[in-house]
Amino acid sequence: MNELTIKITGEAGQGMQTIGAALCRVFKKTGLYIYANQDYMSRVRGGNNFFQLRISDKPVSCPVEKADITIALDKKSVDLHKEGVTKTGILVLDKEKFGISGVPKNFFHIPFYKLANDIGGNDIYINTVCCGAILGLTRTGFEYFEEVLKEIFSGKEEKIVAKNISAAKAGYDFVTAYFKDDKFKVSSKAARNTLLMNGNEAIALGAIKAGCKFYSAYPMTPSTSIMDTISHFSAKFNILVEQAEDEIAAVNMVIGASAVGVRSMTATSGGGFALMVEGVSLSGMTETPVVIVDAQRPAPATGFPTRSEQADLDFLIHAGHGEFARAVYSPGTIEEAFYLTAKAFNTAEKYQIPVFVMTDQHLADSLMNIRVFDLNRVKVKRSIISKEDSAQISGYKRYKLTASGISPRAIPSWISDVIYVDSDEHNEEGHITEDAAMRVKMVEKRFYKKMSWLSKEIEKPVTFNIEKAKKVILGFGSTYGVIKEACEKISDKNLGFAHLPQVWPFPKLELGRLLKGKKIITVENNAGAQLAKLLMRETGFCVSSSILQYDGRPFNLDYLVKRIKELRQ
Predict the structure, then answer these.
(1) pTM for this structure?
(2) Superfamily name with CATH number, domain 3-178
């Protein structure tokens, strides 16, 4: 097969993520392209979770509706997922353990529990038995898995490694003996020398590359692994990581660190960001650069803690009381997550504003193998007065009025002058004022002038077949991959798409040129068609329709193709 989708499903605590992560590493070693996503409940035990892995000899970037191989680790998963198997696919189960008899032809029995206990002595080895079985079904060389197991268990006792290899080999040998069909065989060497990572890891690495030296956050799904990744590399890159007591403390710590010249970042989800909003306004008034990641999940309130949504678009654009400049990036790929996070630091510091990186659970947790980042693309540009030049400063004005609206930014202790910073309205020196004329000048400085310059540096929309298209699919953020693949699959010369890696300042001039005279359809993971309304507000263009999904799950390829085709009729 040129492409295969594998789903491992069971209750929380059975190790679907462990199996999936190991398989991703195996298939990466074989040179296959990978796209993996997780569907998990907000609970430690029970319920139903799954890890879905799509592998191909060409790049893939979104989930599909049905799986070719579904591994059910508990009885409940059999009923829940049996209809989600392709016509030529199979559902793999332990019918003896589950007490199921008379199984359909597309069910394949493997005694997972017996094999695990025979080799390892308890059920804990079911994970590795499953991995071995999947390798057998796909006719993948067992040596790849041995290599991965040794990497995973490096530092463990040799007998633990040996037991896991034996358990995997038992699953592999069982399939080899009893499943004689080669229909799931996959092989490729096209995707060699790639990186395997998810969106959160890319954001963390982008921040590190940009020179982030202070990170403070309160753990909140799905942003937490950003902190985990930065913490992992903190000693190597001299980064201070602080787990704050709440999101209010986190954002204020970041503002404080930034005020003294340290590149700083925090990350959260919508509920945590709501607590940070007063701090966002403080950043706007004091003109202190901060980078904030909002990894969206369904809301309001606690919502679906472990699911995905794109409903914070309006919130981020307008967050904070009063009017001040900000930028909002909306990466749609692992690569964009890396490069746009790095850019966010330069933008925040250049314009002395809050900058948001808007992602979501789908992009945050999905795994792909990608080309190695071009580190030469990331230029760290510090927009501060150097330590040498600071020694010559006299009569410093923190909020000096300039033609650009950007004041020269000095670092405390580098200059002999006192730096006055105030959250009240202030004059050029930073002293509180209630003068009406000064108020007008400061609002124009913080808002009009900075937004004018920011609008000249907008990330351009990413387009496909846009010039000749009569109909254009428009999206932002994590819908990029599924829209792109859907348009490629439909293969209609009259159909194009545009993806927005930046939603604020809105690229209205560029979109005005690209979309003029075309039928527009937005694809959004929200209920309010927020992108469609933003487009109308900023350009006057009305969309003909919006394909909306707000059940907490991302779009899959088959569903989106079907919906687009319906709208073409």
Answers:
(1) 0.96
(2) Pyruvate-ferredoxin oxidoreductase, PFOR, domain III (3.40.920.10)
